[in-house]
Amino acid sequence: MAVDPLIELRDVNKHFGSLHVLRDINLTVGRGEVVVVIGPSGSGKSTLCRTVNRLEPVDSGTILLDGRPLPEEGKSLARLRAEVGMVFQSFNLFAHKSVLENVSLAQIKVRGRKKEQAEARSRELLERVGLAAHAGKYPAQLSGGQQQRVAIARALAMDPKALLFDEPTSALDPEMINEVLEVMRQLARDGMTMVVVTHEMGFARSAANRVVFMADGSIVEDRAPEEFFTAPESDRAKDFLSKILKH
Q1: How many domains does the structure of the chain reveal?
Q2: Is residue 153 part of a domain?
Q3: Which one of 11, 188, 201, 219 has the lowest number of neighbouring Cβ atoms within 10 Å?
Q4: Nearest to 35 by CA among 194, 199, 213, 241
Q5: GO molecular function of the protein, one example (predicted)?
Q6: Is the Cβ–Cβ distance between 13 and 59 less than 8 Å?
Q7: How far apart, in Å, do the first and last CA atoms of the chain sit?
């Protein structure tokens, strides 16, 4: 059990029509913990990730952030999304706004910061993700890896309690994947609470405190990376790893 739980899912269920995508999910993520969620396609990983900031409402069960149930809607939901940042496969940057404006916008709109204050914070974060020199550019002038790092800076700009990553490198060319994972590794070292859905097993091995393996909407294993990768307990995990680790 995590010492200081930040995110808790208790008996969470979710259906899409007749499809039962999350089945009695129980998961606790402690403050400062990095939990990597892996599993075959269609196992419910992304849906799980999206329920934590209510991008997907659940059918039953409870999700707590910092001991409080997730708000239903309205202003408190917007606040929640500021506290639980999300980085998607697609970067979702505003094409007509500069990198600096992309990172500053929500700080001004949601956090109520003054423009100068927001821009100063944005520059600091662009420095952190290695993009300080690109503040004046537009998304189309950047590579996919750079755009994803801008998206991470934008999420960090809200000073979130936790960050969710939904397959953040799956839309990237192979040579750009590492620059994004390196930023994520640094965040992990800095103590950011992270839930990461990914196919990058090297990242799971090196940066995760725990690996959660999902199949058919259930959590099959939840263990330390070393244990999971060297001695998986379930046949599902053994089968999954044998397919993935051969490549």
Answers
A1: 1
A2: no
A3: 11
A4: 194
A5: ATP binding
A6: yes
A7: 34
Q: pLDDT tens-digit profile of 165-192?
A: 999 999 899 889 999 999 999 999 999 9
Which residue(s) pair with 197 in the sheet? 37, 166
**Global pTM value:** 0.93
Interatomic CA distance for residues 111 and 7, integer angstroms: 22
Query: In this structure, is residue 138 part of a structural domain?
Result: no
Is 101 contained in some domain?
no
For residue 113, what are the CA distances in angstroms to 125, 128, 157, 159? 15, 20, 11, 12
In a domain, 155, yes or no: no
> pLDDT tens digit string along 133-149?
999 999 999 999 999 99
Q: Is 86 in contact with 163 (CB distance < 8 Å)? A: yes
CATH, residue 213: 3.40.50.300
Report whether 14 contacts 21 (CB < 8 A). yes
Over residues 48-65, mean pLDDT: 93
Average pLDDT, whole number, for the chain?
93
* DSSP code for 26: E
Q: What is the pLDDT of residue 246?
A: 64
CA distance 72 to 89: 25
